[in-house]
Write a structure and sequence with these properties.
EC 2.7.11.30, receptor protein serine/threonine kinase, Transferase(Phosphotransferase), domain 1, three-stranded antiparallel β-sheet, 3 domains, 15 strands, CD59, binds adenosine-5'-diphosphate, 37% helix, binds magnesium ion, Kinase-like_dom_sf, single chain, transmembrane, Phosphorylase Kinase, domain 1
Amino acid sequence: MANLWILLAVVAVQAALYRPCESLWCNCTTAQCEKNGSRCETDGACMASTSAIDGQEQHIRICITRDNLVPPGQPFYCLGAEGLLNIHCCYTDYCNSIDLKVPSVTTPSGLGGGWGLVELVAVIAGPLFLLCLLLLVGLFLYQYHQRAYNHRQRLEVEDPSCDHLYLAKDRTLQDLIYDLSTSGSGSGLPLFVQRTVARTIVLQEIIGKGRFGEVWRGRWRGGDVAVKIFSSREERSWFREAEIYQTIMLRHENILGFIAADNKDNGTWTQLWLVSDYHEHGSLFDYLNHYSVTTEVMIKLALSAASGLAHLHMEILGTQGKPGIAHRDLKSKNILVKKNLNCAIADLGLAVRHDSASDTIDIAPNQRVGTKRYMAPEVLDETINMRHFDSFKCADIYALGLVYWEIARRCNSGGIHEEYQLPYYDLVPSDPSIEEMRKVVCDQKLRPNIPNWWQSYEALRVMGKIMRECWYANGAARLTALRIKKTLSQLSIQEDIKV
Ligand SMILES: Nc1ncnc2c1ncn2[C@@H]1O[C@H](COP(=O)(O)OP(=O)(O)O)[C@@H](O)[C@H]1O
Ligand SMILES: [Mg+2]
């Protein structure tokens, strides 16, 4: 635009000042020409052009001096300039009086064969417009997805229509646990309730440390809960343990009561929680370290542990049935003592489930997991038949026998009891290697000592007999959890013990 006016001004000034030698007359539309009858005289050429400024068609007719007809043959003034279209230079009197039309968009313009304004606009704005359109569509789709995702999250976490059934303000932990044990699903609370519960727990203090992380006491609605916190690296262990605890029909008074699993992403790392019932006595290991036990308590502890293990091992058929489960890390640190001095089997992280239909195990089991001190001889020497699910149950029974030995040593009979000791305390160092254990258990075929004086007390005699039958080198010859449970039930009746 500015170029056009400069061009017109230059031409007009020259038209006014210049006196040509061989002149010709041209039509002229500039203001200066008006007093000259809208014509001008020049020694160069007449020029006519149309312009389409602001969408309005205008005709421009001017004189061009010879000096300005450079370069010869294709003078600059006769070429296109911004805003000028369809330029025509000619060299006879009034030859620029011809009528010029603004070229249509589709025909090539007079701008020296280049792009016309409309084309340029179309070429630049078209792709830009398309790009914007694509961006808008992308943005819309992204927002739509986000909204749908948030909506789903809200439904999962705090859908009031479902939450109120479980989590009305006045409902306590006891109510929740009652719901759990009576709920039809048989596998625990709905996931969104689990999450809501987990996210409203206030952690209080560390109560234990194990393989994967810390165990905390937490408070929820006036009640205590235990929170096992896994590090992000242990996500697979967290998932596996939560999965096992949510096995249909697993709930049992002698298996740690599972409440919730939650994976909370705080932006930097993921906190992995397993929430369960809290037992203030802690593990059986802790309990036996602190207290000796009466015959009654010994039988209660032993019978409840056998009941828990029998339930874990048992396969229940039917749609509401449960698969057989082997623990694979049974020991006094993984058994909790409840207020009523019954046991609850905990730490199911290494457990395996049996699918009896296909006679397969639900994960590929590695040969030697668990705690070396409690490993059965066939696990230590790797002769265990891992294709056979019952092998894992037999290995659990061996470990249960060791736990019974730990309990029985603490039994107060006739005023005598022994100090707490771990099994094989006198035969291997602390934190023994597999090799050290194998030498003692497989090669020397040694087992924890059963003192003779136990024979004098019926309860200890029965316990001693059970232990021996749990420790056979041949796994298949060992007692089953159910058999142990029955024997101890009889003993408790005999001893007039209320369990
Ligand atoms: N529900 C609970 N109540 C009280 N103490 C617990 C509870 N769960 C675990 N503990 C304590 O934390 C310890 C470690 O817990 P555990 O589940 O065995 O974790 P890990 O898999 O790390 O071994 C237990 O030996 C016990 O002392
Ligand atoms: Mg443990």
